[in-house]
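Propose amino acids for all 451 sites.
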């Protein structure tokens, strides 16, 4: 009996070996209907409380935490329900740790909101939680608008597919003779059909003179079986597409206003020339109605659009997701890991079991892989690097490797305020060519000896 008590005592001592890093810490379990808040047991008789989700309740939470002497709080990033509480607590001077829900999973047992809140408080007290990266408030606003624009752009493809379906149901093969149904010719023809025009000879007059498809083929494509239900579907689909186009334009205006606001902060209010430099005469489909380059150059102090493969969307997405200050990431490798472009090495018994990239749906990861993919036909050093990697490790791995290179280039440009320098890649490319030539010459000489 004596031995067993000694063992239990030693186990209890080991469990209490964690050092208290944040003595004034609290934990919050977030849901759509309420917030469960846990503070240390010595701060209040009822140290775990449940509050409502209304704005007045959020202020009550902040005041109660201040009364309990709490100066730092940890909570899960559950949906969008954390956002307003996050802002209210920051306004009251409380440090907020926004943590990944995977990092605060409770031990096995009965799960309740109260237990979760208490567990988060215990982990935060011992300093075992890592704060998620959050850019400044103005950049967060820009990020939300940009994400909304991306969502609208995705819905546009749904509207286009509905138009194609309605036309094909009537055997109108317009998508076979026009490369893009949302082009000037395609939209004019669909508008005329919705207005009541059915004659192919009249509809073909709306085709733009630059369309290369023979006019005989277009006439054949415009002959079909007109059905009332399909015409109704076509009308609704086009109206939906035009509505989304209008929303996209409104998003562009709002994004430009927010960029002007941020640029004024970094340029002491002098933004007189920025809007003139950012004006565009012509815009491509789905592009911004303004040029992003002058705004980002005025904010960051460097031109990140010079990076090969970077479009306006890539540059603006990177800025909207990270802001102008990347000091939260101590190294470029940590930044690449946060984006999701570093291998997730799993080692057991001294052996690497898996080294795949993490399945992280990050907006930066998406645009960087798109930029890396665009380098395939580029006649520059980065394009050569991509093609060389593709021949050695395959297309999928090459895209990820080049995306990681682009992320590291962006990190160094923003942190060090250095312009894009492609000379290093060109030197590497020249040395690779020399090695390749020597290797081929050696092979040729060996073949001559054999012959």
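Proposal:
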């Amino acid at each position: 009996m004596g031995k067993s008590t000694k063992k239990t005592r030693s186990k209890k001592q080991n469990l209490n070996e964690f050092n208290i890093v944040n003595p004034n810490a609290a934990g919050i379990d977030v849901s759509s209907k309420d917030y469960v808040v846990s503070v240390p047991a010595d701060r209040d008789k009822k140290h775990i409380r449940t509050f409502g989700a209304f704005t007045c309740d959020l202020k009550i939470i902040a005041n109660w935490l201040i009364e309990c002497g709490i100066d730092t709080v940890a909570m899960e990033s559950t949906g969008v329900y954390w956002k307003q509480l996050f802002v209210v607590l920051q306004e009251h001077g409380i440090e907020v740790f926004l943590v990944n829900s995977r990092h605060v999973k409770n031990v096995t047992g009965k799960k309740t909101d109260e237990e979760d809140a208490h567990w988060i408080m215990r982990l935060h007290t011992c300093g075992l939680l890592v704060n998620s990266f959050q850019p400044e408030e103005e950049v967060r606003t820009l990020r939300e608008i940009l994400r909304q624009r991306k969502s609208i752009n995705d819905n546009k493809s749904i509207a286009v597919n509905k138009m194609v379906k309605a036309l094909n149901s009537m055997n109108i093969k317009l998508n076979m003779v026009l490369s893009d149904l949302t082009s000037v010719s395609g939209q004019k023809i669909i508008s005329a059909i919705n207005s009541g025009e059915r004659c192919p000879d009249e509809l073909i007059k709306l085709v733009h003179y630059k369309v290369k498809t023979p006019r005989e083929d277009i006439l054949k494509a415009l002959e079909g079986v007109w059905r009332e239900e399909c015409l109704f579907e076509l009308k609704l689909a086009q109206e939906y597409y035009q509505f989304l186009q209008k929303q996209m334009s409104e998003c562009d205006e709002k994004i430009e206003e927010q960029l002007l606001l941020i640029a004024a902060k970094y340029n002491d209010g002098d933004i007189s020339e920025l809007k003139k430099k950012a004006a565009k005469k012509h815009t491509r489909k789905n592009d911004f109605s303004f040029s992003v380059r002058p705004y980002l150059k005025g904010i960051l102090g460097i031109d990140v659009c010079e990076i090969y493969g970077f479009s306006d969307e890539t540059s603006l997405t990177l800025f909207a997701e990270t802001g102008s200050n990347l000091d939260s990431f101590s190294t470029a490798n940590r930044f690449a890991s946060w984006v999701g472009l570093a291998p997730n090495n799993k080692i057991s018994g001294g052996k690497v079991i898996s080294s795949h990239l993490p399945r992280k749906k990050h907006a930066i990861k998406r645009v960087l892989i798109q930029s890396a993919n665009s380098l395939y036909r580029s006649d520059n050093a980065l394009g050569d690097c991509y093609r060389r990697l593709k021949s050695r490790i395959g297309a999928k791995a090459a895209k990820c490797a080049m995306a990681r290179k682009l992320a590291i280039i962006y990190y160094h440009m923003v942190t060090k305020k250095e312009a894009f320098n492609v000379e290093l890649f060109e030197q590497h490319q020249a040395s690779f060519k020399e090695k390749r030539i020597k290797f081929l010459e050696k092979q040729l000489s060996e073949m001559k000896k054999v012959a």
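The beta strands are 25-30, 34-38, 48-52, 72-76, 95-99, 346-348, 351-354. The first strand starts at residue 25 and ends at 30.
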